[in-house]
Design goal:
Length: 476
Amino acid sequence: MIEKVPNHQAGQQFGEQAKSAASGKMPLRAARCGALKGRVTPPGDKSISHRALMLSAISMGEARVTGLLESEDVVATAQALRQCGVLIDQVGPGEWLIGGVGVHGLDQPGNIIDMGNSGTSARLFSGLAAAHPFAFHMTGDASLRKRPMGRVIEPLSRMGAQFIGAAGGRMPMTVIGAETLLAIEYEVPVPSAQVKSAVLLAALHAKGRSQVIERVATRDHTERMLRYLGADLESVTGTDGETIITIDGFPDLLARDMTVPGDPSSAAFAAVAAAIVPGSEIEITGIGRNPQRAGLYQTLEEMGADLTWQGDRQAGGETVGDLMVRAGPLKGVDVPAARAPSMIDEYPILAVAASCAVGRTVMRGLGELRVKESDRLAGIATGLAACGVEVAIEGDTLIVEGIGNKNGGNGTKGGAPMGGANVATALDHRMAMSFLVLGLVADAPVTIDDATPISTSYPGFVESFTALGADISAPS
């Protein structure tokens, strides 16, 4: 059954939410602008930044990490490690030194560890904590405390860790680790790089050889970095197409310097903005080109976006490249569910691109969006409807009717959403940035109720976009 989102109801709901949530927050307004021009470098990859800190912390020796994302989420990981006795110093912008303590070297933290809004911090750190024989008490902000932790609790409990948490396997939560964990053969029940990574981190402390099996491949940053630091890890494709990852316990991880590539999820906002704002032409430099993170760019190309990759190079086991984006007409496409793991964080901004396209875009397999920082599936639909876009949800499928045949579009060049909404972003950084991008092309300005969550993944977002010519400012 299709659940349609009425435009007028969405507008009323967003208006009421914005009024009730206005106190103590930082609203921003984005308005239609001229062509975007110039060059932008996205912040360091958030997923890799978390892993660079954690894996350097349990290696032997000192690592220098450059290009590290200095966002609230990544700082939460750094602070958690500091509370466990790891020496971490920032020596320059994006440049950090981490003194590794070895696989078994974390100390018992003296205080509760606050993971802020970072689900990656909480889930991956659980894998580290599971292998140390004392208690780790963890909490997070209101959004993180609603997110499910059961998906990591189940395999880590089978390996020998204990968990005490709030109802439904949520935070606040205490992890009681074991001196030595049991090796495990574990098939990840839902596509999740965080669950896979938590098990692999715990398996470093397990007797013998562990296996993690994925029916749907997810981003493999953890595997690449573990091999880079010396772990005995093998990843092969099984007879049924599954990915089988095998890792031996108690490796000698040796600290190595590394450079963090630009985050493809953060670069997606500039890429879509340049694709939909008429006359735009920008270069986005230093983007990580991991194949498991390429879904958004593959989809944009299928929609007809003018994308040109150039200058591919290697950095710390990852391929990095530069992207030229020029504005042009987009068409609606059908995005298969199998692509979701490679672009799960990019669906909000893809939905913005779809709203400006000619025809219908169908995005399948989005159930995971309901347990992100907010219920992103519902939030995307409600926000787009408030901006005059026809949108519907059918199970875990999102359907967006492109505005290309309306509002001045001629059926080939596309058109612009009506805009004019006040969007409540529910403490979700990607929702906030996506609707600001929509405002750059909408007929009427779009206002978000709170821009403060943007700093969890993209510090300097507004400054980067205004330097390209975007009209983003505080509402009068």
